[in-house]
Structure formats: C-alpha cells, structure tokens
C-alpha cells in the first residue's frame, strides 16, 4: 500500500502523512500520536520506527549539552559571569539551529555513570565548563561518544579541544601597568582553592616580574581563602601580624581584591595612596567600590561565542568525514586591563 493510500485510510492528507513519518514540525502532538498509534495497529511498525528514528536524529541535530563539572563548587558558586556566559552560549547556539541543555557532573558521586547519561541524551556535542577540573579528571571523558570542547581550562598538556582565557597575558598586563606607574615591589594575593586559571595567573605574575627585571620576593605572596568575606578576614589577620607589604598587590580574582580593599581600609591603609591594588575578571561591582577597582577584563560574552563556534566546527568536521583525523584546536581569548582608581604612581605612595 502506498503512502497516499495510507493517508486516505487515516483520513489525513498525503502531506500531513509525510510530515508525521518524517517528523517535520507543524503537526499537533494529538494528531501525530493518533496516526502513529493507528499505523501500529495496522502493522506498519517500520513506518513508526522510521518516524522515531527521524525524531531522534532531529533531536540529536538540534541539541548541544552544556556540562558543568563540579569538584568543590567554591569557585563556581562565586563565578562572576556565569549567567552572561550562558546567555552568550545560548544566543550563538541558536544561530546554528541548536538549543542548549544544561547538566552538572558532581565529582563526589560516581562520575562514569554520569558520563554515560550524557551519551544517552542524543546531543550533537558537549561544551564542558571545566573551571574546577584537574588534568586527571579528563580521563573520565574518554568514555564520551560525542565530540566535546572544554572551556575555561586550557589543559595545555592534553590533546583535547579547548577554549580558554589567556590568564598569563592578564597578569602580565597588570604587572606592566604597575611597572609603568613606578612600582617595583609587587605582591600577589592568591586563592587557597586551586583552579588552572589561578595557576596560570600566578605564572604570568612571576614571568612578568622576570621580564621587567624585578625581584620575586616570597614575603609578598600570600594565600587566602576564596570569597570576599573570607579573604577580608585572612588579610586582616595578616595585617595584625605586621607582615611586610609591597607597594602594590595583584590578585587572583576580584573577590579577593575586594576583600583585600576592605581589610586595608579597616587597618587604616589608604588605597591607592598607601597601597595599590589590581583585581582580575572585572566583575560588575568593581566599578562600585571606593575607590573603583582596576581589574583585568575578561570578555565573557565573546568567550561563550567562541565556545559554540568551536564545538559546531568540530561537529561539522566529524560529520563530513567520520574516519578523518581531526586536528585538535586550542583557542585563547585575550584580556584587557580596565584602569580605574585603585593604582597610584609609587612616587606618591605612602609605603616604600
């Protein structure tokens, strides 16, 4: 029996019949379910299976999965641009005809079953938010059967596709600006919670000091807890011990910088008159502090756009030639220093 004859028996047009078995939009779910049920009763299971396969292919073609990997959650809970990042990812995905489904992987629960659940989602690809991941965590994703791109973590020693911030450039820009302002004793406030971005920023700090011929003085490097209130308490405790202070501090993150600003002011130190301060990430609240905080700006919107571009490109390459060896790409997003009011030329500073 032809499709036209089946359509006549089901009291629908041939066009409607074709749209249903090919899973095309524009048909109500009630009509679609009725027709598929009747086809089953008539013994046309092959057409039902074909429609289901078309539906599965449609979903797979249309969906990208955004996966957040949680190791401890402390950094992600304070993440300054998560909503903006999600907005940019969703907007760019729509341009390519995809929608975003979000999932979380908790490292405190068995990870491999969580990875397997991703394989069963019929997504075309995965954008892995890898801020808190360590290199050994990537091994779990060897069981992923769909392409993925890791973001916010370069994994420089691993042959995987990534989109990340050039964190070393950011701290280099901060040090360069301080040097041009006459600072030579430059300290670093780093988080006790390790993520790869913080490690890269610290390396950028040390490399920049060496480039400008400045001494790396371990007395000026302090580790504090990550969170504004915690860093405020930790730095306040250090100040009560009369620890040696440089003329300026660069911080792992704005959260620490704002906590440091509060601690300095509570101890009677003026920013920037007595000590200068630079944050990292350029959070929205950095323009509202007193004084407004100079900070390394991270272009999160273009970061999300680049992530979608990377996974869509990877999907396309694999689709065009599944047997081809696809070369790994690592995209780095540049930073820019936003100068406000928390840095002063060292000749005017009160601490020497």
Topology record:
Elements: H1 3-9, H2 14-21, H3 29-41, H4 45-62, E1 63-70, H5 74-77, H6 82-95, E2 99-106, H7 111-119, E3 125-129, E4 148-151, E5 162-165, H8 167-180, E6 186-191, H9 196-211, E7 221-224, H10 228-240, E8 248-251, H11 254-266, E9 276-281, E10 294-297, H12 300-320, E11 330-333, E12 336-338
Parallel strand pairs: 1-2, 1-3, 3-4, 4-5, 5-11, 6-7, 6-8, 8-9, 9-10
Antiparallel strand pairs: 10-12
Helix pairs in contact: 1-2, 6-12, 8-9, 10-11
Organism: Wansuia hejianensis
Domain Transcriptional regulator LacI/GalR-like sensor: 175-343
Keywords: DNA-binding, Transcription, Transcription regulation
Describe what you observe in this structure:
- The protein is of the alpha/beta class and 352 residues long.
- The protein is 43% helix and 17% strand.
- The strands form two sheets. The protein has a six-stranded parallel sheet, sandwiched between helices.
- Strand 6, helix 9 and strand 7 form a beta-alpha-beta unit.
- The longest helix has 21 residues.
- The chain is elongated.
- It comes from Wansuia hejianensis.
- Keywords: DNA-binding, Transcription, Transcription regulation.
- One of its GO terms (molecular function) is transcription cis-regulatory region binding.
């Amino acid at each position: 029996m032809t499709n036209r004859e089946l359509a006549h028996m089901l009291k629908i047009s041939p066009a409607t019949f074709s749209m249903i078995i090919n899973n095309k939009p524009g048909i109500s779910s009630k009509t679609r379910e009725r027709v598929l049920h009747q086809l089953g009763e008539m013994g046309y299971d092959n057409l039902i299976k074909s429609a289901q396969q078309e539906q599965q292919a449609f979903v797979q073609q249309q969906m990208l999965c955004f996966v957040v990997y949680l190791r401890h959650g402390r950094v992600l809970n304070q993440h300054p641009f998560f909503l903006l990042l999600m907005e940019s990812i969703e907007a760019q995905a729509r341009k390519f005809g995809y929608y975003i489904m979000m999932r979380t992987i908790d490292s405190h629960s068995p990870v491999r079953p969580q990875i397997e659940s991703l394989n069963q989602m019929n997504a075309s690809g995965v954008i892995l938010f890898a801020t808190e991941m360590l290199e050994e965590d990537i091994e779990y994703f060897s069981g992923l059967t769909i392409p993925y791109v890791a973001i916010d973590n370069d994994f420089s020693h691993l042959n995987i596709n990534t989109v990340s911030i050039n964190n070393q450039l950011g701290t280099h820009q901060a040090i360069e600006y301080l040097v041009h302002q006459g600072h030579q004793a430059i300290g670093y406030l780093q988080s006790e919670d390790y993520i790869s971005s913080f490690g890269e920023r610290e390396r950028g700090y040390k490399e920049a000091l060496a480039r400008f011929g400045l001494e790396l003085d371990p007395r000026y490097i302090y580790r504090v807890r990550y969170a504004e209130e915690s860093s405020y308490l930790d730095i306040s405790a250090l100040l009560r011990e009369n620890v040696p202070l440089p003329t300026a501090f660069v911080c792992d993150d704005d959260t620490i910088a704002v906590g440091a600003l509060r601690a300095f002011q509570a101890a009677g130190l003026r920013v920037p008159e007595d000590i200068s301060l630079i944050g990292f990430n350029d959070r929205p609240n950095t323009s509202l502090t007193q004084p407004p905080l100079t900070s390394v700006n991270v272009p999160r919107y273009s970061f999300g756009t680049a992530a979608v571009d990377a996974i869509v490109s990877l999907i396309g390459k694999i689709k065009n030639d599944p047997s081809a060896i696809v070369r790994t790409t690592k995209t780095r997003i540049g930073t820019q220093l936003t100068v406000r009011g928390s840095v002063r030329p060292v000749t005017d500073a009160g601490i020497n």
